[in-house]
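All the exercises in this workshop are built on plain-text protein records. An example says more than a description, so a record of this kind follows:
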Amino acid sequence: MPFLSKAGSSAVAVKSTGGYLNPGRIPTGSSARFALLSDQPLEYWEVWLQDSEGKLNDRGKIISTPCRFTTEPTPEDIEAELGTQWVRRPNFNNDGPGPVLFNLAAPIYSYDNKCVQVFACDKASINRELDAISNMIEKGDDYESILDVVFVIDKEGSGLNTEYKVRIFPKKKKDEAAIEEAWGKAQADGFDISRLLSGGNPFKES
């Protein structure tokens, strides 16, 4: 018998909004649990832009938007995307342009939210671990595919001292029906992760 009731378990589970699981938004001291729905992630490079006039959103922060490229962009490539509305967002120290970061994104089934989400990650440490796990699975006999495992990402610390740990467990057969149902519905609704490249909604065509 579980230690917590279903209501209690739901109350303490990691919640993600907007259909995305971003490791940076996992609360410190918590974990996120998910299964990949595709073994071919979307790879891209991302740089953040902000409103050139400093206009604020409803949370009082400068309006920002990501700009994504299928190959690592040069400063000239980024400049060509700015137009008059955007400027490149400054770095953390506010003494130069923000970084261009390699990202991967993949459709997942979130066990915490019981739905299909997009796992989007620019954390090099996590992406290295995912790559190492993928290579281990490919060379081993324990699993047929990276789709056969459940991933757990643990987060500890904060700021520059933040640490992530990636663990894997076998996927349980009792969960397969719910995963297949959720993924089938998302695909029927028009899920297409490549829309991220143009700033679109991967869950439905706008």
